[in-house]
Amino acid sequence: MSNQTGNDFVRDVYPNLPEVERVRVDLAAAYHLIEYFSMSDSIYTHISARVPGDKEHFLINPYGTRFGEIKASELVTMDLDGTIIDDPCDMGANPAGFTIHSAIHGARPDLKCALHTHTVSGVAVSSTQTGILPINQWALQFYHGVSRHTYEGIALNLEERERLVNDLGRTNKILILDNHGLMTMGSSVGEAFTLMYNLERVCKVQLAVLASAQPINSIDSSVCESTYEQYKHFAEISQRHGFHAEWLAYLRLLERVSPTYKE
């Protein structure tokens, strides 16, 4: 581990950056981490972050770039009507990405980031009626707070936005897009990414358990409830210098394996 203190590391990652630039750096970092952990889908899927300030703008990836290529300075800025405000690479944005992410940012101002994946395990679980099964400790983080949205085809119909946000609800941060993939959201980019990393592992374990064809140990519902509350408590006590300790650990990883995200 680096000899830097937590404060030193935060200053190195965000050197006197205004808030909007810090959001850009975090969003680019999330793209690189999705690529690093093999959760990307070529140039498809998308992560967005609300631009701080009074205007309802959000940042998203330039359409056509692999996630590991994305740089903070090259993110596309859009408004909720689909108008591109800034497009440094002149590549536009994924139309389906606009549909999904404009819906989230327009309806849920509490959510600063929305992250969508098409992984093998995520698509597999989204294609089942059972959803996330409460069969292990990791899964109990998602014992509550998970919504589902019925598949309507590739998300190009803007009328779907209303149904999507109605299905998400007013407080949930996890959305299973039926027969399609997964979405996580957060009050920060770090929260949305960490939820997706954990949710992806849950899906992988669930598929492995079901594939084993062995009897499954059930967990008492009261234990499921208490473990879910424990997860919430750990999230609260894991803050370091205004950031979640796990997010700072991921940023330290990127400094070693993919530092171009900050450019």
Q: What do you see in this structure?
A:
The structure is a single chain. With 263 residues, this protein is α+β, with helices and mostly antiparallel strands. The protein has one domain (7-262): 3-Layer(aba) Sandwich (L-fuculose-1-phosphate Aldolase), CATH 3.40.225. It contains 8 helices and 10 strands. It has an 8-stranded mixed sheet with strand order 4-3-2-1-5-8-7-6, with helices on both faces. Strands 9-10 form a two-stranded antiparallel sheet. Helix 3 crosses helix 5 (160-168) and helix 4 crosses helix 6 (189-212). It is globular, with a radius of gyration of 18 Å. 36% of the residues are buried.
Task: Put the structure in a nutshell.
By secondary structure, the protein is of the alpha+beta class. It contains eight helices and ten strands. It comes from Neptunomonas antarctica.
Q: Which short descriptors sum up this protein?
A:
8 helices; 263 residues; Ribulose-5-phosphate 4-epimerase/Fuculose-1-phosphate aldolase; L-fuculose-1-phosphate Aldolase; Aldolase_II/adducin_N_sf; Aldolase-II_Adducin_sf; actin filament binding; alpha+beta; single chain; Aldolase_II/adducin_N; eight-stranded mixed sheet
